[in-house]
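Retry 2 of 3 after timeout on previous attempt. Resubmitting structure tokens to design endpoint.
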């Protein structure tokens, strides 16, 4: 069956090359992407033993028997993707190889070979290739977060240099609601390059931190990639703006092969996984998506496709910035029944949690996004599952046991039960006949916690960029209190 698909793809590629049409190059890209996906699907099982012999492997902790699986299998997929792009490079410029002059004799600006487009493709490939190399180094050397957080910015330097030398735009289009006040466009100048670096860092690491479950890394990449393809297709047909068409065609040339090879990887990484993708794939996927968003000039639209990753990043900030204890692997745990349960964290006794960490816990608990357990109460923790909402738990802040909510679990982690034998007493917070409205509940819980956190941030970290927001919120709060 695989041979038949390869032959059909080869025939389709030959037909696309010999045909003539407005979007012939796009057809060639689609056919090459199908071939790349088939190659990746066929090669991954054959490379399994090679990676195991190289000690690039890990235990699947979410299975009963904890099988040993090959890791860093995103590397072969990334290599196939790069080879596909290398072979595709001539096709967007095929018309220039059929008799057109590289430089027009009378007017150098007419009929000149589009070196800027070639440079755009090469700089994008160089950035992706650099990120793959750094991702593989992280898989092999297990680089610490304080260092590897800057890897995407380093890999994105070729892209930003080309963007600057090619006189890339540094303005952003404002939302319709703000245009009467600031205009349609706002020029950010040098800040736009800071924005580009931050976007590259976010896209890369947001894929990496939303991980730990079979298929989630490749799955979210496929969803975002397909969303980008749908967005690009809206701009290339019946669009009179040629510059916009070329920008989105460039995006399609990179994202279609990416979706092709990632689907092949997802096939083998889907539950029950036969391999792990590794940090190499996460970095490769994030950089590819960032590249098409930046050079395709739709970075703000790209962020809309990253909304789940943005939520996960904000939710993870207390652990990422070490306000709350952060485990080595933040993922669910397997209970005795073979079901996944929410991950739990016990605070480090040697390094007590600070005030900002306690405020973060109180805020997330008030929003119902986590549960905090006290190990000195009267009802066993196993009975916790009978409570319908985490808002019913009032918690003291000395040595709490933290459990983040998870859609795959409805009971606390078995690790929390085995670590100690906590008990739990019923809270003063009970349902009454006059149930408070959501607004009154937020005013009584979330708002005071936010104000307390902003006050602490403004006093203890005045140089922090968020300290300005803290001063602003405190001043508005004081104005509200002074009004009769």
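Retry 2 succeeded. Sequence:
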């Amino acid at each position: 069956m695989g041979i038949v698909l390869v032959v059909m793809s080869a025939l389709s590629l030959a037909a696309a090359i010999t045909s003539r049409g407005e979007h012939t190059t796009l057809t060639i890209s689609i056919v090459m992407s199908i071939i790349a996906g088939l190659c990746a699907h066929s090669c991954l099982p054959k490379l399994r033993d090679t990676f195991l012999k190289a000690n690039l492997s890990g235990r699947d902790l979410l299975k009963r028997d904890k099988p040993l699986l090959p890791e860093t299998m995103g590397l072969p997929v990334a290599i196939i993707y790069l080879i596909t792009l290398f072979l595709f490079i001539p096709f967007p410029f095929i018309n220039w190889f059929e008799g057109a002059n590289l430089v027009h004799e009378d007017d150098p600006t007419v009929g000149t070979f589009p070196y800027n487009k070639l440079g755009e493709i090469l700089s994008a490939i160089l950035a992706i290739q650099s990120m793959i190399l750094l991702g593989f180094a992280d898989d092999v050397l297990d680089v610490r977060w304080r260092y590897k957080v800057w890897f995407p910015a380093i890999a994105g330097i070729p892209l930003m240099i080309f963007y600057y030398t090619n006189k890339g735009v540094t303005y952003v289009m404002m939302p319709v609601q703000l245009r009467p006040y600031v205009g349609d466009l706002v020029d950010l100048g040098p800040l736009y390059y800071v924005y580009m670096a931050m976007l590259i860092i976010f896209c890369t690491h947001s894929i990496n931190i939303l991980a730990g479950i079979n298929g989630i890394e490749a799955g979210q990449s496929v969803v975002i990639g397909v969303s980008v393809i749908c967005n690009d297709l809206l701009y290339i047909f019946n669009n009179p703006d040629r510059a916009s068409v070329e920008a989105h065609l460039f995006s399609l040339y990179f994202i279609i092969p990416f979706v092709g090879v990632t689907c092949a990887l997802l096939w083998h990484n889907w539950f029950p996984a036969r391999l792990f993708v590794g940090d190499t794939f996460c970095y490769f996927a994030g950089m590819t998506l960032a590249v098409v968003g930046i050079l395709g000039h739709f970075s703000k639209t790209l962020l809309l496709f990253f909304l789940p990753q943005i939520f996960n990043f904000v939710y993870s900030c207390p652990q990422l910035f070490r306000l709350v204890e952060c485990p080595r692997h933040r993922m669910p745990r397997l209970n005795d029944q073979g079901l996944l349960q929410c991950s739990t964290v016990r605070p480090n006794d040697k390094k007590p949690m600070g005030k900002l960490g306690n405020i973060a816990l109180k805020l997330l608990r008030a929003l119902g996004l986590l549960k905090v357990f006290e190990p000195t109460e009267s009802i066993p923790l196993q009975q916790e599952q009978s409570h319908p909402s985490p808002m019913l738990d009032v918690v003291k802040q000395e040595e709490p046991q933290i459990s983040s909510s998870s859609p795959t679990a409805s009971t606390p982690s078995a690790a929390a039960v085995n670590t100690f034998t906590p008990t739990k007493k019923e809270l003063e917070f009970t349902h009454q006949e006059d149930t408070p409205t959501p607004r009154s509940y937020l005013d009584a819980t979330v708002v005071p916690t936010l104000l307390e956190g902003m006050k602490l941030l403004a006093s203890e970290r005045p140089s922090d960029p968020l300290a300005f927001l803290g001063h602003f919120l405190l001043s508005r709060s004081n104005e509200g209190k002074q009004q009769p």
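Attempt log closed. The CA atoms of residues 368 and 390 lie 6 Å apart.
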